[in-house]
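Board notes, transcribed. Complex of a protein with nicotinamide-adenine-dinucleotide.
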Amino acid sequence: MTRIAVVEGDGIGHEVIPVARRVLELLHPEYDYFDVDVGYGRWERTGCPCTDPDITLLKTADAILFGAITTPPMKDYQSVVLRMRKALDLYANLRPIRGDSFDIMIVRENTEGLYSGIEEVTPDRATTLRVVSRKGTVRIVRTAIRLARARGGLLTIGHKANVIKSDVFFRDICIAEAKAAVVPFNDKFIDALSLDLLQHPKNYCVIVTTNMFGDILSDVAAYLVGGLGLVPSANIGNRHALFEPVHGSAPDIAGKNIANPIAAIRSAAMMLDYLGDSTGSRRIEKAIGRVVSAGVCTRDLCGSAGTKEFGDAVLACLEKPE
Ligand code: NAD
């Protein structure tokens, strides 16, 4: 039986993930869904945000539906998100940005770079080690090459090789792999790429980049599609997979039933694609499109529907025969 771990996490995770779960449960009542409670809320209640047995339990899932976790800026608090990505080796973070005239996939390395977690803070200096390994670069660029081939489009390598040595290393390995695979490619400095992506989104198909650049670039690119409430993501490794909205726990709007659940629902659609149900995935995307076209939208899209009410409309649409 297909086992789905559901991690609501913190903040609006408690609002958008139940909507996405209801969508999955409607299309796949036969899956076994189980909750895993990790995050800042858990830390506040128990003093521990995530235990080894939690990680072991997550590893038993065929796929994980994940909300978002609040990471307080405290010296001794270990980021649960980083821990999970490393423990499950979820090295490829895929963030699709789709509009009427463009269809872009941002492929972000997810386990090293500036999020290596190798850090030292002294009274006079704080250091974070930016790790770019050959193994990490080869596997992320090969993922991006596969996607570029499948889409028949250009691979763009985003880096800052004019300044950072570890990015010369990243760029050169990516170029060598792209040449060997005979895929069309170009490479751009990440700062110029960020602006050009907003000005000429049609020129992009698959973008591969390092961890933090990919994190920032995808938030920037969310501008093209109406904001963070719309962008889903997949975190894929060789053995595990986790699906989550790109946005965080949004404490400023949590508990108000105003968060947009589209990113979470789309993350569920990406999960179905991964599990082999591309028809279900397409049905979800179509239902979201129909509901939005009918004028049912949350506040971020200038509508007045609540999180739950938007979810009800998507479910009603999915229940109708096509
Ligand atoms: P955020 O993405 O939570 O919010 C940024 C802005 O976008 C806020 O104004 C918020 O209201 C808005 N927004 C986000 N999602 C929305 C939605 N679905 N509908 C409508 N508006 C939405 O980023 P932040 O404020 O920088 O971070 C808040 C917390 O989330 C921090 O503790 C951060 O560490 C955490 N975070 C977690 C993850 C994760 O768990 N993967 C990712 C990013 C941030």
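The chain has eleven helices and twelve strands. The mean pLDDT is 96.
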